[in-house]
Amino acid sequence: MRTLRVSDFVTPLSDEELAQPPEVAEDAPRLKSNDTLEASLRAFDASGATRIAVFDPADPARQTGWAVYARALATFNTALIEANIEEHR
């Protein structure tokens, strides 16, 4: 199974959010777009959050989107199904 990254399932900021980026609490969990899917699932599990702010790895102050728990799980499930199909060909 290929390595999946947060960038594979991130929800980009809306135009409104880009114009006025949302405030993210200092103690809130954060991800970078190049973090792995596994790291994001661990962050969701540890925090109990349903969405986590995603930041640009080259500019850690710039939020680029949201990692949404349901989309992370859907991405994981799709990858598992694809790996299973490939394995049984």
Question: How would you briefly describe this protein structure?
Answer:
The chain is of the alpha+beta class. The chain contains 3 helices and 4 strands, in the order βαβαββα. Helix content is 39%, strand content 24%.
Q: What are the SSEs and their pairings?
A:
Elements: E1 11-12, H1 15-19, E2 30-32, H2 37-47, E3 51-56, E4 59-68, H3 69-87
Parallel strand pairs: 2-3
Antiparallel strand pairs: 1-4, 3-4
Helix pairs in contact: 2-3
- CATH domain class name: Alpha Beta
- Major beta sheet, specifics? 4 strands, mixed
**Neighbour order of strands in the largest sheet:** 1-4-3-2
Arithmetic mean pLDDT:
95
CATH superfamily membership? CBS-domain
Describe, in plain words, how this protein is organized in 3D.
By secondary structure, the chain is α+β, with helices and mostly antiparallel strands. The protein has one domain (6-87): CBS-domain (Roll). Helix content is 39%, strand content 24%. A four-stranded mixed sheet has the order 1-4-3-2. α2 (37-47) crosses α3 (69-87). The longest helix has 19 residues, at 69-87. The chain is elongated, with a radius of gyration of 14 Å. The two termini are 15 Å apart. The mean pLDDT is 95.
